[in-house]
Amino acid sequence: MDRRDFVRLLAAVPFVPALKGASAAPDGLPKLNVVTRYAPSATPGIPGPFPGRVIAVRSEKSVDVETSAANDEVVREMMARGMCALTGKKTPLEAWRQFVQPSDVVGIKVNCGGHPWCVSAYEIVAEIVRQLGAAGVPPTQVFVYERFQNHTIPRPTSRPTSSGKRTRART
User: Fold this and answer.
1) Does residue 8 sit within a domain?
2) Which pLDDT does position 104 carry in this prediction?
C-alpha cells in the first residue's frame, strides 16, 4: 500500500458504519478516565476565552510603501488597539494580563522559513516580548523559537528598528 492508497482509505472511514447498516453517528462518546497529578486549570487554555473572535486593526502609516520598513510606534499602537478591542479592557496592560501572569513560561513560535516575504515581523515579535515584560513575565521565561534551526541561522540576530533601538534574538 502506498501513501495515496492509505489516504484514500482514511477518507472512507466515516462511511464504514453506513455500509454495515449501523447508524452513522455513535450513540455517545466513550467514558474517559483521565489520570493526572495536575488539577484542572481555573482558566482554560486553548481555545481560550475568546474562541473564534477576530479583530482587524489597520493603519496607513504602519509600513512605508517606498522602503517596506515598518513603523514601530504605529505597530505598538495598533497592537494596543487590537488587544483592548479583543478583551474589552481599557489599557493594553490589562488586556495582556488576561492571557499571561508573571509565573508563566511563554513560547513565541515565529516563521522564518518564508524569508523575505512571508516571515514573522520583527516589530510585532518585539512588541509581544515588550508587552509580556510589562505584564510581569521575566525575560528568562520568554522563548522565541522556529521549528528548524537552519531557518534562523542565516538571519541576522540583531537588527535596528525604526526607532534606532536594536532587537536581539537567541537561536
Assistant:
1) yes
2) 93
Per-residue model confidence (pLDDT) at position 22: 54
In three state form, how does the secondary structure of the chain look? CCHHHHHHHHHHHHHHHHHCCCCCCCCCCCCCCCCCCCCCCCCCCCCCCCCCCCCCCCCCCCECCCCCCECHHHHHHHHHHHHHHHHCCCCHHHHHCCCCCCCCCEEEECCCCECCCECCCHHHHHHHHHHHHHCCCCHHHEEEECCCHHHHCCCCCEEECCCCCEEECCC
pLDDT tens for 40-81 read: 777 667 777 788 889 999 999 999 989 888 999 999 999 999
- Quote the pLDDT of residue 134: 96
Q: Domain for residue 43, yes or no?
A: no
Please give the tally of structural domains in the chain: 1
Domain hosting residue 13, numbered range: 3-38+51-168
